[in-house]
User: Fold this.
Amino acid sequence: MEDKVLQEFFAVTMTSVYRVGAIKNEHRQPTVEKIALRGGSVIGIGSQLTGGSVVGITKLGILLYQQDYDPFSGRKRLQRPEEVNTTYWGGMTSSIVALFLDRDEALACFNELADCICLTNCDPQWQEKTEAVLMAIGNGHPVFIISADPKLAISYQK
Assistant:
């Protein structure tokens, strides 16, 4: 039986929730769409990030980037976000609090944030949900690329 490739997940930041989708639009860009917002932002609800064909997943945020080849060998391969010169990074969210497979759970988490002043980047409160998303993405996803750099990777290890 063939494994099903994850097509969508939800990223919660301190100020927003994003729907992140693997299916590319007419501009060959995956979807990173803001679906909830607390306070003001340059990027409003319904707006989408642009500037890349690959979604990088880091604790600093979800980002789009363009480069998909190894500049040293010239061979085509998907690079992890930390391997790509920041010049090739497109739109980016703010720091990640948690990742979810379910939209309603992501919105519930976001609503809890309104009353909490003690949250952290990659908050351990939602570790299980975040790790479930990372496991569903895995290492061979064609669009979602998880950072492996200890400075950028979503990690709960001490």
User: Anything to note?
Assistant: The CA atoms of residues 63 and 92 lie 4 Å apart. The longest strand covers residues 31-37.
